[in-house]
Structure formats: structure tokens, C-alpha cells
């Protein structure tokens, strides 16, 4: 059994620590999918409301 703690190795800092390029791309795609989903849902509600008014 060891009686000491190993010191953590320092990590290299990323170019953009807040949002790496891959994460930024994934976030953009997810946001686009969310917008498209909301638009699609609105169009379906408009269609069903139109059917109800006939």
C-alpha cells in the first residue's frame, strides 16, 4: 500500500478551453435540430387547427 499521493500531471491547455471546435460544431447542429423541430411542431399544430376549422 502506498503512503503518499501521486501528484497530478499538468494537462495541456486547449486553444479554446470554453468550447473546443468539435463541441462547438455539435452544439450548432443540436441547436439547428431544435429550431427545425420547433418549426415542424408549429406547422403540425397549424395543420391540425386548419382541419378543425373546416
Topology diagram in text:
Blueprint: H1 21-53
Task: Describe it.
The protein is built from 1 helix and no strands. It is mainly alpha-helical. The chain has a domain at 23-54.
Structure summarized in a few sentences:
The protein has 54 residues and is an all-alpha fold. It is built from one helix and no strands. It has a domain at 23-54.
Keywords, please?
54 residues; mainly alpha; 1 helix; rod-shaped
The amount of helix comes to 55-70%
Q: How many strand elements?
A: 0
Specify the overall morphology: rod-shaped
Radius of gyration: 24 Å
With helices defined by DSSP (H or I, 4 residues minimum), what is the helix count? 1
Largest sheet: none
H/E element order: H
Question: Cα distance, first to last residue?
Answer: 79 Å
Helix-strand makeup class: mainly alpha
- How much beta, percentage-wise? under 5%
- Given as residue ranges, the uncertain stretches (5+ residues, pLDDT < 50) are none
Averaging pLDDT over every residue, what do you get? 84
Amino acid at each position: 500500500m502506498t503512503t503518499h499521493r501521486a501528484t497530478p500531471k499538468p494537462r495541456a491547455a486547449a486553444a479554446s478551453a470554453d468550447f473546443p471546435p468539435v463541441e462547438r460544431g455539435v452544439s450548432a447542429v443540436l441547436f439547428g435540430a431544435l429550431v427545425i423541430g420547433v418549426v415542424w411542431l408549429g406547422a403540425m399544430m397549424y395543420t391540425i387547427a386548419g382541419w378543425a376549422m373546416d
